[in-house]
Every structure is written in structure tokens, then in C-alpha cells.
Design a protein that fits this description.
heterodimer; A: about 325 residues; mainly alpha; Na+/H+ antiporter like fold; globular; B: about 100 residues; alpha+beta; Alpha-Beta Plaits; four-stranded antiparallel sheet; two-stranded antiparallel sheet; 6 strands
């Protein structure tokens, strides 16, 4: 336990987490610190491209194997399963309606790619290697949770819009997924040679850009946190803190079954613990417009995202190190 | 100068539904429309701003089109499916246009 706490404390003092904390603090203090939307979007595109390309290049190094396929399947199963657990927990812990509970549950089965990027960056900073294909696992975990949530609603007899072709296309082809998977494939095709060609662009500036991006995300999360007052009950906020831990524990179990490395297990925990705040909210507005966006956005962006960034990731890395690293 | 009657339809709609709405406008034979960004405002949920939003789940777009008055009812019926359950405002006003054949 002491080792876990020591490792967690070390991670908390990394520049990226401190930048995020600065953003949260600035937002809560109502500072006018702000990033132009185009710059925030540009940084996000850069980070997705870099993480996808590096993941693909890493897979090119040791090829496609059974563990990769099994990890992808596990990611899809986790994404579909976690909303069912989240839904049951919400219905027992909170007074949320069936619609709101299902909409929130979808967020907790899907993933936050920014949390994943931060997690992988912390692992790199500590010299902990991880399976490059975890990027592909992240992409595979985006959509199944939405299908689970819509199934939950249809089972309850409530009026959800069915998963039509247009909605499925929007989810599967949203810009983040296309860039992440596309750069992963390019990295896989071009391998180490391709990586060395563009390394000065995607490796050296990566952490600095991530710091600035997380500063901006801290501002966004801080404003979401401020919005939590009155928007959600104490029990609902408690769910936003408990569910990531449950997700991480299930992710760790999956990693143990798959035989992932310490870094891979930590990232599987990060993915299972994170909650979507881009793809799923948009899908919920289309499919479940009656569900209250203030509840699910406040929870995923204002509660779970900052929790994972500040306490969760260090805890998951430390736990994976203790359990798998011995 | 000769002026012609027209109806100006202004639809505030959730960004995520914008494409579905414009597809229906095209299907319904609307010859032209404009899509304007909405930076923020205030409604039943209080003040909101586009600033700091990270996805398309929250923002609004404004779609404006001009049509000939006799086509109004059919157009509203055609676009109602995407407006029915979603946040938004439909505002219709009388207008005058110079070249009626364009609408």
C-alpha cells in the first residue's frame, strides 16, 4: 500500500497533471484565462495523430498477434458491459430517471481519449512500456456502450430513437476516431522508419503540447465542476467517483486474463475507468434527447474526468505496477 | 421597385441535429439556406456560451431560409420530425424579396 501511495504521489507532481490542476483552479477562481477554440482543436488533432502513429509504429515492430485480437475483443466486451453495471449502480444509488441513468451509463462504458493520452504519457515518463495496440483498443471501446444504453432503454419500454445508420456513421466516423485509427494504420504500415522520419514533430513537442492541452481541459473541467453545484445530487457525484474505481478494477481483471504488461494493464484500467464527454454526449442528444445533458456532462466532464486525471491515473499505474509488476 | 411576398424561417437547432435539418430542407425543395453559428445565449436552462464547449452535444446553430408563402405548411410538416423532441426555436416572419423565382 505504501508503494502505491508513493508512486501515486510522484505522478501527481508531473507537469501534465499540475497543468491540468492549474486550469481547474483558474476556472474555479473565474480567471479569464482562455484558449481560442481553433488552437484547442489543433492541439487535440496533433495529440491524436501522434499517439495513433506511435501506437501503430509499435505494433509494426512485433506484428499482429492473438493477444492484440483478444485485447480488441475484451475492449468491446468491457464497453458493452460497463454501462449495465453503471446503470444498476445509478438506479440503486441515485434518484435519476431511467432515461437519465441510461444516458449516464453510456458515458461510463465509452472512453475519454484525453485521459488515455495522459495515462500513456505518464507511463512513458516513468519508462513503463505498454502495448502499442492499446490505441486501437481505445477506438474499439468508443461505440458499444451506446448500443448497450439504447438496449437498456428499449428494455424499459421508454422512447429511445433506434440506432439508425446516420447515427452509427456519426459515431464510428467521428473525427477523433478517424484520425486515431488512420494514424495508427499509417504508423503500422510505415513502421519504425516512418516514425523516425517524423519523430521531431510527433515526439519532442508532444509533452509540451499535452501540458497546454490539459491546461485548457482543466479550464473546461473546472467550469463543469462549478456547474455541478445544483445540477446533480451528492449521491450522483458519489457515483462519478465510485464508478471509475469499479471500471478500473474490472479493467485490471481483464488485463490479468489477457496477460498484458504493467503498462498495458494500467491503460486498460484507464480506459475502463474513463467516461466519454465528446462522442457519447452527442449520440445521446440524438438518440435520447429527453435525457438531461446537464447530468451526464457534469458527471463525465466535471467529476470523473478531473478525478481520473489527478488521482485516478496515478492510482491505476501504481496498482498495475504492484499487482502485475510484483 | 417590384417586391414579392416571402416567408423568412429562422430555426435555432442543436448543432448535432443541424445536418439532419438541412438534409430535410434540401429534400423539401428549399432552394437556399444559410447556417449561422450561435456563440451563446440564455434559455430555460439559464445562460450558456459556446466558449469552452468540447463537443457538439451542447451548442446551437441557426438555420435561415426564405420561401414562397404557399410552401410554408408543407415545409414545416417536412422538418417537424427533427424539431419535435429537440431543443430549439422556430421563428417565422413575413418578408419581401426582389427576385421571387429564387425562392
Amino acid at each position: 500500500m505504501d508503494m502505491i501511495l508513493t508512486l501515486a504521489a510522484q505522478n501527481l507532481l508531473s507537469p501534465i497533471i499540475l497543468c491540468f490542476a492549474l486550469g481547474v483552479a483558474a476556472a474555479l477562481a473565474r480567471s479569464d484565462l482562455n484558449f481560442p477554440e481553433a488552437i484547442a482543436k489543433g492541439m487535440s488533432l496533433y495529440l491524436l495523430f501522434a499517439i495513433g502513429f506511435k501506437g501503430g509504429a509499435s505494433v509494426a515492430g512485433h506484428g499482429v498477434d492473438g493477444q492484440l485480437i483478444a485485447s480488441l475483443v475484451a475492449g468491446v466486451i468491457l464497453s458493452a458491459l460497463l454501462p449495465l453495471i453503471a446503470f444498476a449502480l445509478l438506479r440503486s444509488m441515485t434518484k435519476l430517471s431511467t432515461l437519465d441513468a441510461a444516458a449516464v451509463a453510456a458515458h461510463y462504458g465509452s472512453i475519454s481519449i484525453v485521459t488515455f493520452v495522459a495515462g500513456s504519457s505518464i507511463l512513458e515518463a516513468q519508462g513503463i512500456e505498454f502495448e502499442g495496440y492499446m490505441v486501437a483498443v481505445a477506438a474499439a471501446m468508443e461505440a458499444p456502450a451506446i448500443v448497450s444504453a439504447l438496449w437498456l432503454i428499449s428494455r424499459q419500454g421508454e422512447g429511445a430513437k433506434s440506432m439508425d445508420g446516420a447515427l452509427m456513421r456519426e459515431i464510428m466516423l467521428n473525427g477523433s476516431i478517424v484520425l486515431l485509427v488512420g494514424s495508427f494504420v499509417i504508423g503500422m504500415v510505415t513502421g519504425k522508419d516512418g516514425l523516425s522520419e517524423i519523430a521531431p514533430f510527433i515526439s519532442a513537442p508532444f509533452k509540451g503540447v499535452l501540458c497546454l492541452f490539459l491546461l485548457d481541459m482543466g479550464l473546461v473541467a473546472g467550469r463543469g465542476l462549478a456547474r455541478a453545484k445544483g445540477a446533480v445530487s451528492g449521491a450522483t457525484i458519489a457515483f462519478g467517483l465510485i464508478m471509475p474505481l469499479i471500471g478500473a478494477a474490472i479493467g485490471l481483471l481483464a488485463a490479468l486474463v489477457l496477460g498484458l504488461s504493467v503498462g498495458g494493464a494500467a491503460l486498460m484500467m484507464v480506459l475502463s475507468a474513463s467516461a466519454s464527454y465528446i462522442a457519447v454526449p452527442a449520440a445521446m442528444r440524438v438518440a435520447l434527447p429527453e435525457a438531461n445533458p446537464a447530468v451526464y456532462l457534469t458527471l463525465s466532464l466535471g467529476i470523473t474526468f478531473p478525478f481520473n486525471l489527478t488521482l485516478g491515473i496515478p492510482l491505476y499505474v501504481a496498482t498495475a505496477s504492484a499487482v502485475i509488476g510484483g | 421597385m417590384q417586391m414579392h411576398d416571402a416567408k423568412r424561417i429562422e430555426i435555432m437547432i442543436e448543432q448535432i441535429m443541424e445536418r439532419r435539418l438541412t438534409d430535410l430542407l434540401i429534400e423539401a425543395g428549399v432552394k437556399g439556406f444559410s447556417v449561422l453559428p450561435v456563440r451563446g445565449g440564455s434559455g430555460r436552462s439559464g445562460l450558456w456560451s459556446r466558449q469552452g464547449q468540447v463537443g457538439r452535444a451542447e451548442g446551437l446553430s441557426c438555420v435561415v431560409c426564405l420561401i414562397q408563402p404557399d410552401r410554408l405548411d408543407a415545409l414545416l410538416e417536412a422538418i417537424f420530425p427533427v424539431l419535435d423532441r429537440h431543443i430549439g426555436v422556430v421563428n417565422i416572419a413575413d418578408a419581401k424579396v426582389l427576385r421571387a423565382e429564387l425562392f
